[in-house]
Amino acid sequence: MVGAVLVVVLVLVVGGCACVVWAERGGPGWVRLVARATLGAGELVRRAERNRRRRGISGGSQSSGD
Fold first, then answer.
1. Is residue 16 within 8 Å of residue 34, measured between CB atoms?
2. Contact 44/36 with Cβ under 8 angstroms?
3. Residue 49: which H helix or E strand, with range?
């Protein structure tokens, strides 16, 4: 069950990335909409990670920041 969920998430991520590339090349309106949603979701993940680090909550891997 968990594997199926991960496969679905992977397909959505790859599809979103493909839509971003296609939208840059002038794809149809629905592709631009999916690209905007993908970029917005990426920005939300980045902000959440930044806030997480700021509060001192560590994730699975830690980098030394070199």
1. yes
2. no
3. helix 29-54
Side-chain half-sphere CA neighbours of 11 within 13 A? 6
- Is there a contact between 45 and 57 (Cβ–Cβ < 8 Å)? no
The answer to whether residues 25 and 34 touch, using CB atoms and an 8 Å cutoff, is: no
Threshold 0.90, pTM exceeds: no
Q: Which two tokens stand for residue 14?
A: 């790859």
Map residue 12 onto helix, strand or coil. helix
pLDDT in tens, 13-62: 999 999 999 999 999 999 999 999 999 999 999 999 888 888 876 665 55
